[in-house]
Amino acid sequence: MLKRSLENILTPQESQELISSFDQIGDIIIVRIPDSLLAKKKLIGETLLNEVKIAKSVFYQASAVEGDFRTRNLEILAGEDKTETEYKEFGCRFTVDVENAFFSPRLSTERERIANLVQDGETVVNMFAGVGMFSIMIAKKKKCTVYSIDINPVAAKLCEKNIISNKLAGTVISINGDASQVIQEKIQNKSDRTLMLLPERSDEFLGSAINATKSGGIIHYYSHIHADKKSNAGKLSEEHYLQVTSVRSEILGSKIVRAVGPRYYQTVVDVKISK
User: Fold this and answer.
1) 65 burial level (CB within 10 Å; 0-12, 13-18, 19+)
2) CATH number, residue 202
3) Torsion (CA) 19, 24, 28, 29 in degrees, nearest 10
4) Are residues 103 and 77 in the same domain?
5) What is the predicted pLDDT for the residue at 16?
6) What is the SS3 string spanning 54-77?
7) What's the whole-number average pLDDT of the chain?
8) How far is CA 191 from CA 124, 138, 208, 219, 224, in A?
9) What is the per-residue pLDDT across 226-263, written as a single tens digit (0 to 9) for each?
10) Largest distance between two CA atoms of the chain
11) Are the CB atoms for 83 and 76 separated by under 8 Å?
12) 38: containing domain
């Protein structure tokens, strides 16, 4: 239906590119538009608003996610100029701000995978937690304690709200601060499992993840990897981790989380460390 609605303003190839480049988050749509189509962005926004019935707002992503707070600039194309919405995933409810706090609906499969790996009784440290998606999904599935850290005060405040919404007060602990400093001051050697969901800066923070994690604990190390062949990306990410780690590590597995560009992948390596 959406392709048919776009056929009067876009070629079939342009329409396909556009459909693969928009995210629906609650009642908000975010669309990435190539430079060649920017002259038609308002028409595109109005078409998406009309065709996606629950949508109330359509935004053009005008910048990449960037900076310590991991925010992006959005331009309203159609509908209400509001960036906060409610999002549901695997039985959990979240309030998200799509412009002012990091959130990606494209990590839902990875969130479920991690939640299923956690064992009852674990202490989990989520170093770059955003609004608490991974943290809350883990705590909903398993009897555990999750330290949910983010340097962005908007993200940390939304995490607190989401903890209450999902009835997890005391189980998920939201901390606003720099992950390295928080770990150094409060949670050294406390974690059975540490999440490093900042792939572009994982090497910088690996030492802090190791400090947080008990000997015998698990680190989920996310990174961005260039690979000529998709099938090689996981192996390359394992090799990279082994080059940068400072502790003895057993590789438990690796996988591509998602493609982030041509021959460019977000990967995760699951490792058990010994100190």
Assistant:
1) middle
2) 3.40.50.150
3) -10
4) no
5) 80
6) CCCEEEEECCCCECCCCECCEEEE
7) 95
8) 5, 14, 12, 9, 24
9) 999 999 999 999 999 999 999 999 999 999 999 998 99
10) 62
11) no
12) 2-82
